[in-house]
Amino acid sequence: xxxPRSRQVLAAALATAVLAGCSAATGSSTGTSGxxxxxxxxTSVAEALADNVAIETGDTSYDEADAVxxxxxxxxxxxxxxxxxxxxxxxxxxxAGTYRLHGDLTGQVVVDSTADGVVxxxxxxxxxxxxxxxxxxxxxxxxxxxxxxxDSSNKLADASTYDDTSEDAPTGALYSTADLTIGGTGSxxxxxxxxxxxxxxxxxxxxSGSIEVTSVDDxxxxxDYLVVSGGDVTVDAVDDGLKSDNxxxxxxxxxxxxxxxxxxxxxxxxxxxxxxxxxxGTVDVAGSTEAIEGSLIIIDDGTLELHSAxxxxxxxxxxxxxxxxxxxxxxxxxxxxxxxxxxLRLVINGxxxxxxxxxxxxxxxxxxxxxxxxxxxxxxxTDGNGxxxxxxxxxxxxxxxxxxxxxxxxxxxxxxxxxxxxxxxxAANAAAGSEVVISAADGSRIAAxxxxxxxxxxxYSSSDLEQGATxxxxxxxxxxxxxxxxxxxxxxxxxxx
Length: 497
Known about the structure:
Elements (H helix, E strand, L loop, with lengths): L11 H4 L29 H7 L16 E7 L1 E4 L4 E4 L2 E4 L3 E10 L1 E5 L5 E12 L6 E5 L2 E6 L4 E5 L14 E5 L2 E6 L2 E6 L3 E5 L2 E4 L3 E6 L4 E3 L2 E4 L3 E6 L4 E2 L10 E4 L3 E6 L2 E4 L2 E13 L2 E5 L1 E13 L4 E3 L4 H12 L13 E4 L3 E6 L4 E3 L2 E4 L3 E5 L9 E3 L3 E3 L3 E6 L15 E10 L4 E6 L4 E6 L4 E7 L8 E6 L2 E6 L14
Parallel strand pairs: 1-5, 4-6, 5-7, 6-8, 7-9, 7-10, 8-11, 9-12, 10-13, 11-14, 12-15, 13-16, 14-17, 15-18, 16-19, 17-20, 18-21, 19-22, 20-23, 21-24, 22-24, 23-25, 24-26, 25-27, 26-28, 26-29, 27-30, 28-31, 29-32, 30-33, 31-34, 32-35
Antiparallel strand pairs: 1-2, 3-4, 35-39, 36-39, 37-38, 37-40, 40-41
């Protein structure tokens, strides 16, 4: 899915604007409070994880002979175990063990096990719909594993309003106070009709299965961490899509995507955490305010396509007041006014990344480093934002970067970057579909791109460029001579950090 392309045409005078550092602020959504605890020297996902709290992934395998059969019918359930009781539409599981749930229940399943041991819930053709509260509520357990049985289709739906709205009441259709793992080869549909879809108040891991979540608030939340290591996850949320929201405990509050497929449509941030770490898998953000937001964002591998109404990738503090103040300045187009925060960092070491942003494409209120990857940024068409926006040092030492967008707030890598780069503002706006050709001094073609969105500037870097050498950028037959690693005369400020 593509977001609608902007039809706004930049003024010719602004198209000749040169490179300047611009204000990089968090977008209009924050959603968390407190002080970010992302400060870390990590430059890879593995290094970041080594400093974080340990991830607990439950074992989804089980012996069918050991499973307690729980048959759901109407507002009751039957089971051959004293650990399972049914009363007034509430089915309660009070001991560790494996339980196979099947059938339709109008009511709620509650897990309340105070003893040690894992509670494993095998959903095998189970539909649980509550008219008063959450569908599945884990009140207490050492840990819980939800297994989606082979070839099974399952559904959890909560009420549109909850009878209990106290501080300790559940806030999602699937709600767990214990570490939660979801896996298996079946499917699960979750409808968050009152608030969120899936909420883990400890750690939450999706290891496999097909999971589809719709919610009127956030889609999937893991407090200490939210990990997607496999499976197919689809989220359609009115607020944030995937989120980890522990901003107070060191090493917590991270979203990790290391495998599987994630598809998100969100009216706020699609993926948000104190840290957002991507080491594999496929991420497709069809729509969002900001596609990825965190205080530390590291991408080592994976395939990402990010569409945003504001910033595509936004590195910003989780402090609400600072975020809102910065956002207001950003929207007014006040460039170069924010001091870099050295605790904030964007690192891209690999992967294939395509960004479609109406705000900044890649935005860091701190530093940014690119050592690898294939990165394409289709940036904004208005001059209050830029395809690239870095307040601190912006180093590039590898990979391929092509960033196009408006010209009034252009930012490029630091002049002492290890890898060569070129940057230029165009004399006139180029229409979507125009080809950018980059040629060496001898006329040989280095690269060519058909840019799929209107643009007035080009920033390019690859291992084929040599710092200090002269190159020609040709767009719609118009040629511009540029020197790698140097800015344009008359620039209002430094290019990048």
